[in-house]
Structures are given as C-alpha cells and as structure tokens.
Design a protein that fits this description.
Chain lengths: ~350, ~290, ~160
C-alpha cells in the first residue's frame, strides 16, 4: 500500500489555529501523525522580565483569548499569594461569576466548532447564537466581549450592580431553555453519534499515564477537577465534577455540554450568595519569593509558577497550559483512524495552540 | 422540421436552465440561511460569484485542469440541451457521466493530496448515485416502453403513482449530486472540511466559474428527471419539485457529514434494494 | 450591449470570498472573525463566504503577530491568491505586534511580510468592526480597479 503524506495545517478551514500535523496515510487510514508546533510562539514568558507585575496581568490575559479571564485569575492568585494579599469576598465571588461565564462561552464555542468540523453547520450556527447572549453579558458587565480584563492584583476592577445581576439570571434562563433542544440534538442525533462514538478512544489508564487534563481526563472516567481545590469562592459552592466513562469523542462532548449546565448552576449559586464589600485591596510594594498556583481552565488544569525577587518585574513566569498536556494523548489517539475522523479527534481535546505555545 | 423544433427547444431550454439554475442556487442558500436563523445572501448572489470568478487572474496549475473544466461544462450543457430536446434518457445519462469523470480527472492531474482524496471520494460518490439513476431510467423504460422522454409525456397518469420507490432512490441520488449533508463527502458547499474543498480545491478563477455553472446545469437536469415523475399537470410538477428540493435542504440542515463507507453501506444498498422492489413490481403488473 | 467588464466589477464588489489565517494570534480576534459568520452578525448577507482555500479567496484576513516561523506560511498563502485581492490585518497584534511587539520570536505586524490594505484596530475588534474592515477593503479594491478615486486625506500612517 502506498503511503501518502497529507499536510494538515497550518492554514486549514477546520482548525481555527495553526497546528501542523503531517499525516502519513495508507489509503485514508492514518498511520502516523507528526506534529510541528511553533507557529504561534511569541515568547511572552520572556516579557515578564520587561514588564512589571501589574502589566503582566494584561500580557497573561492574551495568552489565549478564549480563556483569558482564567489566565489572569491564576496569575493574580500567584502574585497575591506572594504578597500575602487577601482578596475580599465580593471580589472572589465576582471572579467566580466571570470565570464560569468564560467556561460557558468557551465550551459553547468549542461545541459549535466541533459540530462544524463534521459538517453539521446548522448546529454550529445555533450554538453560536446562544453564545452571543453570554458575550452580551460580558460586554454589559466588563466592557468588552472577549478579553474582559476584570482581574487585577488584589481583586477585581469593576462591580456588577444588583439590577444587572437579575438581568444575568434572566439571560441564563433563556440560555438554558435554548440549550436543552441543542443538547438533545447533539447527544442523540444518529449522524452525530455515527461520527463521534468510538472515535479517539482514550482508556482510563492511558489518560492518567499520558497526563491528560480537563474534559479529556474526565471523559475517561477520572473525577478530577481543579475547582474542588476550593480557590476563590469555589469552597463555598456546591458542585461535583462531571464524569463520563467511555473515553471517546462522544464522551468528551457530553462532559463539556454538561459542564455548560453546571456552570449555569454555579453562576446562579454565586449570585445568590454574593456578599457585599470592597472590590480590591490596595497593593503596596513588590512581590518576593516563588509560588505555584493551579486553576481549572475550560480545557484542563492550568498551572502557573512565578518567581519574584523584590523588584517590580517578576523574574520568571512559567505557564503550563492544559492543551500542552493533552497533546501526547492526542498523538496516541490518532494512529489507525480514517482521514475523515482526524478533525473530529483533534478537535475533541479542545486544542488551544496559542495556550500551548504562548 | 420536427428535428429543428426539438433543437430549438433544446437551445431555449439550455439558456433558461442556466438562469434558473443560478436562481435555484441562490434560493437554496437563502432558505438554508433562514433555517439557520440568519438572513442569507441576495437571490442573485450565485451570479455575482460566477462573474467575480470569471474576472480572476489565471492561476491554473496546468493546462489539463483548464481543459477538464471546459469539458465538464460542455458535457453538463449538452445533457441539459438533450433533455429539453426530449431525447434519449440513456444518452443524457452517459453525457452527464462524462462531464463528472472529466472533473475528477482534472482534480487528479494536480499533485495535491486534498485534490486527490477529493477526487477518489467523488468517484465513490459516482459509484453510488449512478446505479440508482440507471435503475430509475430502466424503470421508466419498463413502464413507457421506450427510453425516450417524449413517450413519458404521452402518458396520462403521473409516473409517481407506479414508481414511488424509484422516486426515493432518485432522491438519494439527488442528495449526493447536490453535495448536501449527509453526502457532502467529496466537496462541501460550506468549505469547512478536512480536505479543504476536496475535488474543487485546485480549480480557481475561470475554471471554478465554469464548474459552478456546470453544477447549476446538473441541478436543473436532476430536477428535470424528478419532474418526469409528474408529467401530467404543471401545478403538480411544480409542487413535486418544490417539496423535493425543500426536503433536500431539510435533510442537509439536520444531519452531519458522514463517511463514504456509510454512504455505500446505507445509501447505495437500500437505494438499490428499493429500486429493485419497484422494478419487480412493475415487471409483475405488466 | 453587454458590458462584461462592468458586470465583473459588480460581481467583485458583491462577492468577496474570505480566507482567514490565524498567524500567531491569541484566538481573541479569530473567534470574533468566526462570530461574523454566525446568526447575529451574518456576513453572508454581503456575499462573504469563508472559503478555507486561498486559491478561491479574494480577501485575506490575518490576525495575530508574525513570527519567524509563520511568516513563510503567510507569504505562501498570499502568493496562492489570485488577483484582485486584498489583505486585512486584524487586531492590535496584526497592526504592529500589539502587546507582544518586543518578544524575541515576534517579527512585528503583518505588513512586515505582505502588503496590507486595511488595518482593523482593537484587542480584539468587535465583529461589527471587522465587517466594516471588509467593506473598506472593497473600497480599496475599487480604487485598485480604477473605479473610484483614492481619498484626498490619507488615514493615519502607522510606523
């Protein structure tokens, strides 16, 4: 059988990001997938030494535009840990609200792109229509649809007034009602199931040994969610990690869709329990020491290591993003699949190459 | 003089078909957009697309691509011409096939993996829809006694009454030819596909414009084949075509794209089975 | 009689096909570009389709900074497009490198590699701004084709 080489990317209609995979094919079956990264590498960790620790919040937000609020939150937690700052309770709850809204928009975005990846364009349009409502909430509360810059060292920079909190609850009710039929379609449609069930199977042991994270890990049966660590206001909220056991693309899709509903519930709980108080504590001086923090990003576990030496510029900011950890499982899933399944499997780990390469 | 009359019919039919085909394509996009809660492009959009493509600077990779684009367009035009001139159904079918084969050969002539995979998938699609159309034509011939279109217009009950299953088989073939989900396997209208634009990837500019017009003519031809099933009244014919086309759009919007393996197992298999059942029944009632 | 050139020009302005290349972007601009195709913004009304193939496209939407690795891919894609074509650089990163202009792997904005016709500022720009950018690009194509005069006052020249 002759081997052909199909270059997948860096510019490709299915993948919004430049990832280059050399697929070695034998008659439409992938034999080997050789990745080539580096198209988005900007080297922003190197910027840490040239910006001060407040400016780095804005740089870190732009590691990935989809989960930007969560990157900023993790970094702010690191600096606050180094400087011994205690974030006021209202700010903690507001951070939870914005990060859960981000999780919802990220998952809805991914669900739409995933549906588009196997040709179900109308589902893509319907999901992104629902996502627009969350973008409207972002814009009304923070001023921008994407990259909202609400986290600052010491707390949050702006408030959500009570009137708008009620509006958020009304919008979430509409979103939930609109998502229910889409959930039925995505999970129960015959053609969708044909394209996703049994594709890209990651067994429970493989997922753990290869270091998967987030829905990729939870879709293979591990109840591992960083939010259970209880950072910000999560220790006062009631939730369980969403787990599926099959380990295929269908299971991962189900985990993410159920997480959207879980986030709606978390935002409702947070709004109900939102305490009064100040928004941020004043920040004086410079951070010193080293610290690690981890949060749950929509794609998995986000891990920050920050080392500061008493000057305004941090000396080292090391970011380990979940997609970086999910790429070895992806390479283990690809051999033996059909060409038509490659975008489905690549998209099922929710790759965010700009997070990976920074 | 009969022949001159038929030739004139053919020419007028071809000219009308080009315009109507473009508007059907525009209507297709408009209704699809409305189904997706969007506004959609203006109805004349396909004409703007073709005009724009005609004006692009030439970037064809080799001369064979250009030749194949011309041949595909000529074959589609000839098959529509023959249809309106009420000629032989088998002849029309084979002319249409020649056009499709040249399109595939053009795609294979370029050293691009997407083009090659798209071309192979296009051949598999042809392998699926051609038996279905041939069985439909055989069914029509068994019923009317001849392969000529004129003999269908001599009947006084619509063909649909005696050949419903064959109509379903024709519907499956129509979905594949229209490149609608679940069968938009070799080249999708949406362009969000793992093989970029599949068999159409390497055709650019003027050649793509020609293939686009050829596609319109193919759609008109297949709608024409569908219209043969209700040849007795104009209103019935129009309704049948409207319902069929709307059903195609509906199926496109409620299903994902499937693989060629599924297409052969679940579309060719049952399609041929349905067609054979109908043919056996036609044979029995003779 | 039939003025084919006039009709072709009308077609060019009413049917700009877009190819999007994410050139080192953080995804913010990319998701706003994809949001343009979706129901609330719906650019298909203007005849814009996102074809994924540079050979079929008229307008190249580039987002993100150019770095030493993807500048080759970017030039490749630009060369594969047939004339008449336009390039739109989207977002602060595409204009000049944005927040990352002094990172070690970043070459700069898109105009360091290919000629840019329209710049859409923002971080990320709203979908409405991107649609406006495409409309301005159509004006630029009109000027290139000689159908309109270049404006007397030039936009701010970015160094």
């Amino acid at each position: 059988m002759a081997k052909t080489l199909i270059p997948f990317g860096p510019q490709h209609p299915v993948l919004p990001e430049p990832l280059h995979l050399k697929l070695v094919m034998e008659d439409e079956i992938v034999v080997e997938a050789i990745p080539a990264l580096g198209y988005i590498h900007r080297g922003l960790e190197g910027l840490a030494t040239r910006r001060d620790f407040n400016q780095m919040v804005y740089v870190v937000e732009r590691v990935c535009g989809i989960c930007s609020c969560i990157h900023a939150m993790c970094y702010c937690q690191a600096i606050e840990g180094l400087m011994g700052l205690k974030v006021p309770p209202r700010a903690q709850y507001l951070r939870v609200i914005w990060s859960e809204l981000h999780r919802m928009h990220s998952h809805l975005l991914w669900l739409g792109l995933f549906a588009d990846g196997f040709g179900f364009e109308s589902l893509f349009m319907a999901l992104w229509r629902v996502r627009e409502r969350i973008m409207d909430i972002n814009e009304a509360t923070a001023g921008n649809r994407v990259i909202i810059s609400t986290n600052i060292v010491g707390g949050v920079r702006t408030d959500i007034n009570t009137g708008y909190l009620q509006e958020i609850l009304r919008t979430l009710k509409t979103v939930e009602a609109e998502l229910k039929p889409l959930y039925d379609t995505m999970m129960n449609d015959y053609t969708v199931k044909l394209r996703t069930v049994g594709k890209g199977v990651l067994t429970k042991e493989q997922a753990w040994q290869l270091g998967a994270g987030g829905p990729t890990l939870r879709g293979s049966g591990w109840a591992h969610d960083m939010r259970t660590l209880g950072y910000e206001a999560f220790h006062e909220l009631d939730f369980e990690p969403v787990v599926e056991t099959d380990g295929d693309a269908y299971a991962r899709t189900k985990v993410r869709f159920r997480e959207v509903f879980q986030s709606i519930d978390l935002v409702r709980q947070a709004i109900a329990k939102l305490p009064d108080g100040i928004l941020a504590v004043p920040v004086k001086g410079n951070p010193t020491g080293e610290i690690t923090t981890r949060v749950e990003q929509p794609r998995g576990e986000l891990f920050y290591y920050v080392y500061c030496n008493g000057t305004p510029n941090p000396e080292r900011v090391r970011i380990r993003t979940p997609t970086f950890a999910n790429i070895p499982p992806l390479l283990a899933m690809l051999p033996g699949v059909e060409l038509a399944d490659v975008p489905v499997i690549v998209l099922s780990i929710d790759p965010c190459i700009s997070c990976t390469e920074r | 003089m009969m022949i001159l009359g038929k030739l004139l019919l053919g020419v007028i039919g071809l000219a009308l078909a080009t315009f109507i085909g473009g508007f059907i394509s525009g209507l297709d996009r408009k209704i699809t957009a409305r189904m997706q809660s969007r506004f959609g492009p203006p109805l004349a959009q396909p004409f703007y697309d073709v005009l724009k493509l005609w004006g692009k600077a030439p970037m064809a990779v080799n001369a064979w691509l250009v030749l194949c684009a011309y041949l595909t367009l000529m074959a589609s035009a000839l098959s529509v011409f023959l249809f309106f001139a009420q000629s032989d159904l088998l002849l029309i079918f084979f002319v249409m096939t020649i056009g499709a084969v040249f399109q595939v050969m053009g795609a294979l002539s370029v050293n691009s993996p997407f083009s090659h995979v798209g071309a192979q998938r296009e051949l598999l699609q042809m392998f699926t829809y051609e038996p279905l159309i041939i069985l439909v034509i055989i069914g029509i011939a068994m019923h009317t006694g001849s392969f000529s279109i004129a003999s269908i217009y001599a009947l006084d009950t619509p063909l649909l009454y005696s050949m419903p299953f064959l109509y379903v088989a024709l519907g499956i073939a129509f979905t594949i030819k229209l490149r609608k989900s679940p069968f938009d396997i070799s080249a999708s209208h949406h362009g969000h596909q793992e093989i970029v634009r599949g068999v159409l990837t390497e055709y650019t500019g003027r050649q793509l414009a020609m293939l686009e017009v050829a596609h319109w003519l193919d759609v008109v031809l297949l709608l024409g084949l569908c219209s043969l099933f209700w040849s007795t009244s104009a209103i019935g014919l129009f309704l049948l075509l409207a319902v069929t086309y709307f059903a195609e759009l509906f199926v496109d919007n409620v299903s994902a794209r499937l693989t060629w393996g599924w297409m052969i197992k679940r579309a060719l298999g049952p399609g041929v089975a349905l067609a054979m059942v109908n043919l056996l029944w036609l044979y029995a009632i003779k | 009689m039939i003025n084919l050139k006039e009709w072709i020009n009308k077609g060019r302005l009413k049917s700009p096909w877009v190819v999007h290349f994410d050139c080192g972007s953080c995804n913010g601009c990319d998701i706003e570009i994809l949001a343009c195709l979706t129901p609330v913004h719906d650019v298909e009304r203007f005849g814009i389709i996102n074809v994924g193939n540079p050979k079929h496209a008229d307008v190249l939407l580039v987002s993100g900074t150019v770095n030493h690795r993807n500048k080759i891919a970017l030039k490749n894609i630009y060369d594969q497009m047939a004339e008449p074509k336009a390039v739109i650089a989207i977002g602060a990163c595409g204009l000049s490198g944005g927040v990352f202009h002094d990172c070690y792997n970043v070459v700069g904005g898109v105009n360091k590699v290919i000629p840019v016709d329209v710049y859409v500022p923002g971080c990320p720009p709203r979908p409405e701004a991107i649609i406006d950018g495409v409309v301005v690009a159509l004006e630029q194509i009109k000027i290139k084709l000689g159908l309109a005069e270049a404006p007397a006052v030039h936009a701010v020249h970015m160094e």
